[in-house]
From TrEMBL:
Keyword Secreted: no
Start and end residues of each FERM domain: 17-298
Subcellular location: Cell junction, Adherens junction
Source organism per UniProt: Culter alburnus
Any GO CC annotation of this UniProt entry: adherens junction
Keyword Membrane: yes
SMART domains per UniProt: B41, FA, FERM_C
SUPFAM superfamilies tied to this protein: PH domain-like, Second domain of FERM, Ubiquitin-like
Transmembrane segments: 505-524
Name of the protein this chain belongs to: FERM domain-containing protein 5
BP-aspect Gene Ontology terms: actomyosin structure organization
Keywords: Cell junction, Membrane, Phosphoprotein, Transmembrane, Transmembrane helix
Region of interest: Disordered: 344-369, 382-492
Its biological purpose: May be involved in regulation of cell migration. May regulate cell-matrix interactions via its interaction with ITGB5 and modifying ITGB5 cytoplasmic tail interactions such as with FERMT2 and TLN1. May regulate ROCK1 kinase activity possibly involved in regulation of actin stress fiber formation.
């Protein structure tokens, strides 16, 4: 009896496992999950725990054993997406940034987006000038500690918070000045709303950078925002393509292609190289989902897309959720009492030290702090035009390359360059890991050497890389990337792909016809008594085929089988 009870409990444990989801305020939600449960079930449980209705902007992210990030697919079982054994640890994050976060219907949703953007600011994903940085940090202070109180907030109180990857004493003083003089009387809700409005006006709002390399071997960061596709190189935004300009996203192995139509039907192709094939596929899926979410009017317009132009080759993927317009329409129908919000306040945070009481650990040595705060406060007052760009391959002009100076991929307004000392994507915890190949890491190493950071409480470990243009190498030396880079062709490349596709289709059609013919022969020569088979057997053509070809072939095969059987018996 005891053994039966123990075996029954073991079977129950095999059918269930524990899953922990780390929320945006760094608290944790743990639940027991059935082994066949899909991602949608877990997401619904988390949203119910948060009392969240505007949930389509959010997603659950996890990291596989190879340190590659993934978004949990809601239509698939959880266990089939994991490459490790339970229990699992995941993170709730903003997957699709609202185009206008201040226009969200409920305060609970705005608060969660506020936590996400505050996290982006700390990890360097939200680039900004020092004046904007001071304003954003002051809004965070006002939301978390309220009005300035000389009795509670002594001189230098803002230094106990770290809002950015790097900041100087002068910037701290400016944050405190704004908090003291300009924000008095603002409630946490108002401060969070003002923070969202300010963040939404920045060019890197919603950026989740993916590290790649361009065709010249220079490090770059690709990102998808509510407004389009962005490429950051160095501290500059060198390309911006609106979603209605992007015609196709494609990947093959580590190579990622962006096809777009820009400025008077000019067709362009951007080509980048991801660290690993898995990172490239993740980049492609993120692009497909973001384009579908922000571009289409209805989810019924979303179609399954293929990663390749060839038949029977590549990955196929379809975004299955609601689109932005449907989400906003559904939010407008919400009628309920606003749910109570439990703000984190001064609770210590594992991944965002901006709300800890400990002293600020500056990433800049004291000997350099004076020079850094001068450059941050005085060198970042405006954005400069970019003098560096990734080459664009023109479809209409063969193998010619275009460089976007002034009127590049920015829609005629000129490419925006961030000052060299502004907050860089290199300080971000990136969504995809950089290859462990020493030759690859050597190509993206920045002046201060490689660094690493562990985000999301230890589960989302990724490598930081400085996205600065590389120095020109001598002609006699070629990097490993240049040796393995596929040769870029003109329009003939598309012709070759089309011919290969036709040949593949022809061969597959012949194979299918041959298989159908064999199946038909087997059916007609069988004992099955069906009407359409009787009609076929009575035709003169079948009678001729049966007596002149099939019967001799059957006798020959039977003779060979008897001969082989006899030899085996004699042995």
């Amino acid at each position: 009896m005891l053994s039966r009870l123990m075996s029954g409990s073991d079977r129950t444990l095999d059918r269930e496992f524990n899953c922990t989801v780390r929320l945006l305020d760094d608290s944790e939600y743990t639940c027991t999950v059935q082994r066949d449960a899909k991602g949608q079930w877990l997401f619904e449980q988390v949203c119910h725990h948060l009392n969240l209705l505007e949930k389509d902007y959010f997603g659950i992210r996890f990291v596989d054993p190879d340190k590659q990030r993934h978004w949990l697919e809601f239509s698939k079982p959880i266990t089939k997406q994991m490459r490790s054994q339970p229990p699992y640890t995941m993170c709730l994050r903003v997957k699709f940034y609202p185009p206008d976060p201040a226009a969200l219907k409920e305060e609970i949703t705005r608060y969660l987006v506020f936590l996400q953007i505050k996290r982006d600011l700390y990890h360097g994903r939200l680039l900004c000038k020092s004046s904007d940085a001071a304003t954003l940090a002051a809004f965070i202070l006002q939301a978390e500690i309220g009005d300035y109180d000389p009795g509670k907030h002594p001189e230098g109180y803002s230094s106990k918070f770290q809002f950015f990857p790097k900041h100087s004493e002068r910037l701290e003083r400016r944050i405190a000045e704004i908090h003291k003089s300009e924000l008095t009387g603002q409630s946490p809700e108002t401060s969070e709303m003002n923070f969202l409005r300010k963040a939404q006006s920045l060019e890197t709002y919603g950026v989740d950078p993916h590290p790649c390399k361009d065709v010249s071997g220079n490090a770059a960061f690709l990102a998808f925002t509510p407004f389009g596709f962005v490429v950051l190189q160095g501290n500059r935004r060198i390309h911006f393509l609106k979603w209605n300009e992007v015609t196709k996203l494609k990947f093959e192995g580590k190579t990622f292609h962006i096809y777009a139509t820009h400025q008077e039907d000019q067709k362009i192709i951007l080509t980048y190289f991801a660290p690993t094939p898995e990172a490239c596929k993740h980049l492609w899926k993120c692009g497909v989902e973001n384009q579908a979410f922000y571009q289409f009017e209805k989810s019924s317009q979303v179609r399954t897309v293929s990663s390749s132009n060839l038949f029977f080759k590549g990955s196929r993927f379809r975004y299955s959720g609601k689109v932005a317009k449907e989400v906003m329409e559904q939010s407008a129908k919400i009628r309920r009492e606003p749910p109570e919000i439990h703000r984190a306040g001064m609770v210590p945070s594992r991944s965002c030290p901006s709300i800890t009481h400990g002293p600020r650990q500056s990433s800049v040595p004291r000997t350099r702090r004076r020079a850094v705060h001068i450059s941050i406060m005085e060198g970042l007052e405006s954005l400069r035009d970019s003098g560096h760009s990734t080459p664009l391959r023109s479809v209409s002009n063969g193998n010619s390359f275009l460089r976007s100076h002034g009127n590049g991929a920015e829609g005629g307004s000129g490419t925006a360059e961030f000052s060299e000392d502004s907050y860089s994507p290199s300080d971000s915890v990136l969504p995809t890991p950089v290859s462990n190949d020493p030759s690859y890491q050597a190509q993206v190493r920045h002046t201060n050497g490689p660094r690493s950071m562990q985000e999301e409480g230890g589960t989302e470990l990724c490598t930081q890389n400085q996205a600065r243009p590389q120095a020109v190498k001598p002609k006699g030396k070629r990097s490993n990337l240049e040796k393995t880079r596929p040769t870029q062709h003109g329009p003939e490349e598309g012709v070759n792909e089309f011919i290969c596709s036709l040949a593949r289709l022809f061969l597959v059609t012949l194979a299918l016809l041959f298989a159908l013919l064999l199946l038909l022969i087997v059916l007609t020569e069988s004992e099955l008594d069906l009407a359409f088979l009787r009609d076929i057997r009575r035709t003169p053509e079948f009678q001729q085929f049966h007596y002149e070809y099939f019967c001799p072939l059957r006798r020959w095969l039977a003779c060979k089988l008897r001969w082989m059987g006899g030899n085996l018996i004699n042995k």
